[in-house]
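Researcher: We're teaching a course module on how sequence relates to structure. For the next exercise, students receive a sequence and then see the predicted structure as tokens, so they can try to spot secondary structure elements on their own. Here is the exercise chain.
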Amino acid sequence: MQIQSVLRGIFSDEVKDINLLKKYLYGNITNTELKGLNDYDILRRLNSDSDYTKLLAGLFSCLTYNKKVYSTVIIWFDEFEDLSILSSSNIDKTNNFLREILDNTPNNLLIFLNLTQTALFGLEDLGEYISEAVRSRIKERISFDLPTKVQFKDYLIELLSFFRLSKYENEYYPFEENLIDKIIEEKGNVSLRSLNESFSLLLEIADIENEEPPLTVAYFEKNKEELMGWKGE
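Model: And here is the predicted structure for the students to work with:
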């Protein structure tokens, strides 16, 4: 009932003092100010993690009520492997949040848990940090394998096409194709992020030095020491 009253206050015109409602949502409201919301059946503060989770679930359901306007809310948790460095208490809170938010918004919420595997943390290690209740709610596992040379070059052509102002015969402009091959060879079997960093850094250096494109293997060799510092994985 309390959460329903708060949602009515958010989505209706009943509450005239919007700043007061904001203070309530951010937890900065005083007891005296809270009385100003009692007429709208908002009788107490949001206290527990469960209160905020249910409020978010209700908010998502309201936003997606008209599927022609918004059909789904998407949440992306990046670097989810950092869960392993949290305290046991915070790991439990994270699991409880995921379980409750999924249960309360089952048909209009899509959550991505982005996990980058490292030498110290692999997919199998997640079992120690994600409860069985959450694991049983995971619908699909998507693996992004390291790209092949052909895949990366196709990706680079598409990426560059979005930023190229004019058409060039060289589809890798502002790079020469043999430079692309050279950097992929030097970097080895690494992620898209690592390759992106190398090309991005090379462009930054060229911009600073006023180097005219297309960038060549010779220019790469000149800056190789600095670029290979980003070799990463």
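Model: If you want an answer key for the exercise: The chain is about 45% helix and 5% strand. The chain has a mean pLDDT of 86.
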